[in-house]
């Protein structure tokens, strides 16, 4: 067994899930103080500080592959930052301390704190590619869709795979000017649009998880968020397809300079090459996960924890003593 295989097996042998769940809980609790206060950077900064402090107590050797804040100059856990005590397995870390910062600032649903882990070298490194055209579908439709299908054809394929009529489908689409034509095509086909200002990790989860009221996600969103979401999609057995989609001439030049392809369609196995993955998310504002609540000196959180090796998806409620926090 070579060293690389041994390192990957070390990740398998230790369940880091509860450790990273504690990290997302800490970030969500810290950020929750800023819900509805109109200051997304303050909420993000609080979550970053809490997440970094919690990470650095973990026995693992983590490198941030997917960080946050670079695009909008928010506080960040920067790409390449080392995390943990360096005494445990070597892992790639993808994080978003507050996914949906505008949702948090405005007190809207589906702001979450989220993390994924994979063995070192397993995650796709987007480099300077901030944006990606993406399609996410549940496992029933995973083998029948293509990224560049005309919208009407795509919806027919998904509807058939799910045993639905097209008019019963709901599509998660980010509320951006660039998606105006996609939304028009969805309406013309007879399906519904669920529009969100941000939060496309949550969008991919809503599309892939059962009983959310969303059947697929479509449109251009964050490349880092695509990699982060891919770990959860891999556990759940769905599919996420993406192609880098620069939104400025400067970004396009940087992407090409980095040697990245603007034509290659990336699937879930391109975005995360290993099956040894963990994904955790804790709700900050109530949506598909319940948000943080404070009542009678108690702080309550609601999270989801996924582990590919076990094929497990756990929903975890936690209650903390406010004074001990």
List keywords for this structure.
325 residues, alpha+beta, eight-stranded mixed sheet, five-stranded mixed sheet, 10 helices, 13 strands
**Discrete helix count:** 10
Largest sheet data: 8 strands, mixed
Please identify the oligomeric state.
single chain
Principal-axis shape? globular
Euclidean distance between termini CA atoms: 44 Å
Say how many strands there are.
13
The proportion of strand residues reads 25-35%
Which class of secondary structure composition applies to the elements?
A: alpha+beta
As a percent range, the share of helical residues equals 25-40%
How would you portray this structure in words?
The strands form two sheets. Strands 1, 2, 3, 4, 10, 11, 12 and 13 form an eight-stranded mixed β-sheet that branches. A five-stranded mixed β-sheet has the order 7-6-8-5-9, sandwiched between helices. Helix 7 (200-208) packs parallel to helix 8. The longest helix has 16 residues, at 17-32. The chain has helices at residues 3-13, 17-32, 40-55, 101-106, 151-162, 180-189, 200-208, 223-236, 249-257, 268-271; strands at 61-66, 82-83, 90-99, 112-119, 131-137, 170-174, 192-196, 216-222, 239-244, 278-283, 293-295, 298-307, 312-321. Helix 6 links the parallel strand 6 (170-174) and strand 7. The model is unreliable at 5-13 (pLDDT under 50). The N and C termini lie far apart (44 Å). Helices cover 33% and strands 26% of the residues. The chain contains ten helices and 13 strands.
List strands and helices in order, with pairings.
Layout: H1 3-13, H2 17-32, H3 40-55, E1 61-66, E2 82-83, E3 90-99, H4 101-106, E4 112-119, E5 131-137, H5 151-162, E6 170-174, H6 180-189, E7 192-196, H7 200-208, E8 216-222, H8 223-236, E9 239-244, H9 249-257, H10 268-271, E10 278-283, E11 293-295, E12 298-307, E13 312-321
Parallel strand pairs: 1-3, 6-7, 6-8
Antiparallel strand pairs: 1-2, 3-4, 4-10, 5-8, 5-9, 10-12, 11-12, 12-13
Helix pairs in contact: 2-3, 7-8
